[in-house]
Structures are given as C-alpha cells and as structure tokens.
Amino acid sequence: MVHAVDPHTPGIRFEVNGITLHGIEAGPKDGPLVILLHGFPEFWWAWRYQIEPLAKAGFRVLAPDQRGYNLSDKPEGRRAYDLDTLAQDVIGLGEALGYGTCSLVGHDWGGLAAWWTASRHPDRIERLVAINAPHPAIAGDYMRRHPSQMLRSSYIGFFQLPYLPEILLSAGGYRRLKRALRRSSGSGTFPEADLAEYEKAWSRPGALTGMLNWYRALPFRPPQPSLGHLAMPVLAIWGMQDRFLEFGLCERSLALCHRGRALPVSQASHWVHLEEAETVNGALLDFLSTS
Q1: Can you tell me the distance from the alpha carbon of 222 to that of 218, in angstroms, rounded to the nearest whole number?
Q2: Do residues 64 and 96 make contact, with C-beta atoms less than 8 angstroms apart?
Q3: Protein fold of 12-219+229-289
Q4: Which of 30, 82, 130, 205 has its C-alpha lying 20 to 30 A from 241's C-alpha?
Q5: Residue 270 known to be catalytic
Q6: Which backbone phi and psi does 205 adopt, to 5 degrees?
C-alpha cells in the first residue's frame, strides 16, 4: 500500500505570471524537477500517492494548486484561464525554482495544460506524462467525429453556464460533486474522509467559480500551436474504465508525438493515479528516470 501525503502538509507560495500560486515541494533541491498538475475538481493533494515515491527517487517534486484552486489565487473572469495563460503558469513555476527545464505529469485538466505547455514551449519540457488527458488541439475534432464522446462530454456545456453551476454544485455540502467522484471511480477511491478534504478546498472563497472558469475559458482558446510532432518523450497513462474520455483521444494525441507510447490500465477509471497508485508510480519512475 502506497503511503499518502498528509493533506495538511505546509506549502510554499510563488509569485508567478502576475498571481500567487500555492504548492507542495518535496525531494532534493538539486534533483531533476517534476511538476505535478492536478485536474478538476482536485487540488495539489490529487498527487498524495505520487509525491513521496518521486521525491525518494531523487526528483525535486512540485505539486501546485493551479490557478483558481484551493490556496492559489483566483483571478476574476473567464479570460484569466485560457490555455496560454495556464502554460505560462507552468513555465513560471519552473523558473521560480531556478530551473530552465522540467518534466510534467498532468491528470485531466492538468494533463491538457501539460500538453499545451509542451506544444507552446517544447524547449522547456524534458518529458511529458498525460494521465487520462487528451491534447487540447485534437479534442474538439475528435468529439465532433465521435458522438459517443460528445455525449460523455455533455457536462462541459453545463459547466460553462453562468452562476447556475455554482448554485447546483455547492448545494447540500457539494453533494453533486461528491456523487460525481464516487460514480466515476472504483469502490473506495473517495472515502468520506478524503471527500471532506476536497470540500474544504471547494469551499474557499471564489474557488468553485475559479475551477469552473477553466471550462468557461474554452471558447477563448488561443491560436493552436504548430501541430508538428512533439520531440520529447511522452507517456500517456489511461484508465480504460474512464466514463468521461474515450481511449481514442489518447491514440489521437499520441499521433502528435515522435516518441509517444500508451500505458492502458484495464480495470482503472478516470482516477487511475489514485486507484492504481503502485502501477502509476512504477511507470512514472521508469519513464522519468530513463536517460
């Protein structure tokens, strides 16, 4: 059983891209930098099973609360959450720690941000791991060509509405968000004690709106980077029981990579990093350590 990092671990703050981001740092100060990017609706604690194994292996690990989440700043307005801005946050975090390059591991929305960062700033990213997350450049076209994926993604339209999602998702102690996590995951993935920690993060002033603004910013997508093949090594870890994202998205994303490969995890859901932590950690250590 992999040990989980305490959700109350003291963090540090970074002045990045005009805002303040909170994060958890671990591992040797001179180790290769790995930035872990969480998705919706998590926060840095999404990586509770990955932080210590990576740090013990000699990596300098940074798990930030991304903008809009938990203890990080929550700038107002949808345009503050477009993909280029999210990528600049990632680059800024590496620079704040004194690194010119780093490796990225991203899940869900964090994976989309990681893909975009690698495409916009390929000289700054050494290796990329996307966990149940497609490249944003192919997601829209894939959805239009696959009605089954469009149906799975129908919640995105609801999240983009003003005001109403905040009202419904926060009602009853965030009952709908908790239920969505449990229904989309394996048995026991999100026990009550863990959901209580998520609720604390969701309840911070402005957090739910900031989280939803990632979806609301999608219509403001900046011009796509050149879809020339990514040169850095890429690993896509995919829980095959994902209720939100089809594996075809993974295949289409890897077609944009010179050195990309997939690791399907047959019995895992969208939350594979929590459900199959030992498998994911082994894959991360092997991939990130390869010279």
Answers
A1: 9
A2: no
A3: Rossmann fold (3.40.50)
A4: 82
A5: yes
A6: -55, 125
What pLDDT was estimated at residue 227? 56
And the tokens for 225? 């980077």
- In DSSP terms, 22 is beta-bridged to 13
Distance CA 166, CA 188 (A): 26
Which regions of the chain are under pLDDT 70?
222-228, 291
Query: How far, in Å, CA of 165 to CA of 274, rounded?
Result: 26
DSSP states of 218-229: GGGPPPPPP-SP
Question: Torsion angle of alpha carbons 248, 190, 234, 283, nearest 10°?
Answer: -120
Catalytic residue from among 65, 82, 89, 108: 108
Tell me the one-letter amino acid at 66: Q
Q: What is the pLDDT of residues 78-100, one digit of tens each?
A: 999 999 999 999 999 999 999 99
Active site residue 215: yes
pLDDT for res 226: 59
Residue from 82, 198, 215, 273 carrying the catalytic annotation: 215
pLDDT at 223: 65
What does the pLDDT read at residue 51? 98
What residue type is 136 in one-letter code?
Answer: P
Cross-strand pairs, 15 = 20
> Alpha-carbon distance 236 to 19, whole Å?
30
- Active-site pick, 22, 107, 270, 273: 270
What is the predicted pLDDT for the residue at 290?
Answer: 78
Domain boundaries, the chain: 12-219+229-289
The answer to whether the CB of 115 falls within 8 A of the CB of 100 is: no
Q: In what order do the strands lie in the sheet with 19-26?
A: 12-16, 19-26, 60-64, 33-37, 102-107, 125-131, 234-239, 260-265
Q: Specify the amino acid at residue 157.
A: G
Q: Any catalytic annotation for residue 3?
A: no
**CA-based diameter of the chain, in Å?**
50
